[in-house]
Design goal:
Elements (H helix, E strand, L loop, with lengths): L1 H58 L2 H19 L1 H11 L3 H8 L3 H4 L3 H18 L10 H23 L7 H13 L4 H8 L3 H30 L30 E3 L4 E3 L7 H21 L3 H20 L3 H17 L6 H21 L1 H17 L2 H15 L27 H33 L4 H19 L11 H31 L5 H7 L5
Antiparallel strand pairs: 1-2
Length: 544
């Protein structure tokens, strides 16, 4: 009897060992096949891109030839490997402005990041079709999005289309297409993020990647400031007249694009790694939300410390870069996050971070009191000259009096990037800009979309019971809430907020699924039963 029991106990172990060996061999063969496939595909793409780039370089310009080679290469690889393309997209986003002006100031280079995004989006759609997973998610968001799209297409057809017949050299249809792309082009990132983040490991990789990129960008921006401060870069200090008060590409220094540096006039607006100063300001604001999540929630102490350092770098660069809106909003968002995420009640986690951050900022303030005072005076002067609430009110009033009909003046008519195709208005607040372009019904439809998204993300993160996942969700949700109803300037039109807003909404929506997968795995482990193929597929519900 004892021998029988021992034998029955040994058979499953042998079978399990054999199964494990077969799985390892299968994984090894699969890895080898993938490696060979990558080599063959990359070799063919490199050859084709080099030939095209060489021809373009001879026919047009060497820089354009290099750009064409790189563009063909990474676009083709993005089609083949959409998952890696999305990670590359997130890495490229904050440094794209610098790359644009290093290679050459071409309008095509402004859209280079879409060479990662669009192929990756196609890959996500193909994955969903192959695995029979929903492409349009979350489903309650689909009706308001359909209404917004319908109203936008009506504006494109009946406003931009009519303008096309009396354009006088303009291209209203092309302007409208670009305006539609700016308005709704990055909304599919909700779905991309949902399938990109498969588990907690991917979530941690994302937040740590953001930390690293924030540190890199702030470090490069600090070098830019030092070069200007020491006179290695002149900035606009040698200009005269009105040019002393305008950001320009002629004053570009080290990284980024147009900058303003006239310290004798008290004018400093640095672009950091972005194309323009105000985009850098909104990168700092959004980074305040995203670095907060890792600084308080990362399970490893060294990454929490790095999160603290990233937060400090955001505060310091908000002062040094001369970004008044960042100087005002970064501290406010920090306090807002502490309250709305509930971190303020966890003294063991809150106090070390708060003390460390205060010490770092205090040292920086003591060493540069005149810089801090100058920025505060600049902010007060701007507030007194044009209080934000009056500024927004006047923009709404002007837009409502100027826009015609129920469909607005036409898509792209107040979109800065569409000025290539015709005359555009500079409207510096978001919802008045939408009112001018797509009319009152369009504004209402967009408000319904962001309200639905805000509610769905709130519902998603509140349903999570795991403290770590819930804390990440709370931090990201406060960012979604803040941007949804912000109308000061137009961050949802351009990088990086136009990407981060929709992407991190998708991350929040995935958190309940991650928690459910972990519970399934824990239950299977507790019962010592293998996870079925279907459950394993659901557990890793993200494309390869």
């Amino acid at each position: 009897m004892l021998k029988t029991k021992r034998k029955s106990k040994q058979v499953p172990e042998a079978e399990a060992s054999l199964l494990s060996l077969k799985e390892r061999l299968a994984q090894k063969r699969k890895a080898e096949r993938i490696r060979k496939d990558l080599i063959r595909f990359t070799t063919a793409v490199v050859f084709f891109a080099a030939v095209v780039g060489f021809v373009v370089a001879l026919a047009i310009d060497p820089k354009i030839g290099v750009g064409a080679t790189i563009g063909i290469l990474y676009t083709a690889l993005s089609f083949k490997y959409p998952r890696h393309a999305l990670w590359a997209f997130l890495i490229y986003l904050p440094i794209g402005g610098t790359i644009t002006y290093v290679i050459g100031n071409s309008p095509l280079l402004q859209l280079a990041k879409d060479g990662f995004y669009i192929p990756a989006l196609i890959g996500v759609i193909q994955y969903c079709q192959r695995e029979r997973l929903p492409i349009l998610t979350p489903k309650p968001l689909v009706p308001p999005l359909a209404i917004l799209l319908m109203l936008s297409i009506l504006t494109l057809l009946f406003v931009n289309g009519v303008q096309q017949f009396s354009s006088g050299g303009e291209q209203p249809i092309l302007m409208g297409i670009l305006g539609l792309k700016v308005l709704m082009g990055y909304i599919p990132l909700v779905v991309c993020a949902y399938y990109l983040i498969r588990d907690r490991k991917d979530l941690l990789f994302l937040t740590r990647l953001i930390l690293v990129m924030v540190l890199v960008c702030c470090g490069l921006a600090f070098i830019q400031y030092l070069l200007l401060k020491t006179g290695r870069c002149e900035g606009t200090s040698g200009f005269s007249g009105e040019d002393l008060f305008k950001a320009t590409l002629e004053a570009r220094c080290f990284v980024g694009g147009a900058l303003l540096y006239s310290p004798q006039q008290g004018q400093i607006r640095l672009p950091g790694t972005f194309v323009a100063p105000w985009q850098w300001g909104w990168f700092l604001i959004s980074s305040g939300f995203l670095t907060f999540a890792a600084a308080f929630n990362d399970p490893q102490a060294r990454w929490r410390l790095l999160g603290l350092t990233s937060m400090a770098s955001v505060f310091v660069m908000a002062v040094l870069s001369g970004q008044r809106i960042a100087l005002a909003l970064v501290p406010i968002t920090f306090v807002l996050l502490l309250i709305l995420t509930g971190q303020v009640i966890y003294l063991k986690k809150f106090l070390p971070t708060a003390v460390g951050l205060s010490a770092l900022l205090g040292i920086a303030a003591v060493q540069n009191p005149e810089v801090l005072q100058e920025r505060i005076n600049s902010f007060q002067g701007r507030w007194n000259a044009s209080p934000p609430h009056l500024f927004i009110y006047n923009q709404f009033k002007w837009a409502s009096n100027t826009q015609e009909g129920l469909l607005g003046k036409g898509l792209g008519r107040a979109t800065n990037s569409a000025r290539t195709f015709g005359d555009t208005e500079l409207i510096e607040t978001y919802y008045p800009k939408l009112l001018y372009e797509i009319g009152p019904f369009g504004v209402l439809a967009f408000l319904v979309v962001v309200t639905a998204l805000t509610y769905l993300t709130f519902k998603a993160y509140r349903s999570v019971r795991d403290d770590g996942l819930r804390s990440y969700g709370a931090s990201f949700w406060v960012f979604v809430l803040f941007i949804s109803y912000n109308t000061y300037y137009y961050p949802l039109d351009v990088d990086p907020v136009a990407v981060y807003y929709w992407f991190f909404a998708g991350v929040i929506l995935k958190l309940p699924e991650i928690e459910r997968q972990e519970r399934l795995e824990a239950a299977a482990k507790a019962k010592d039963t293998p996870i079925s193929k279907k459950r394993r597929r659901l557990k890793r519900s993200g494309f390869a």
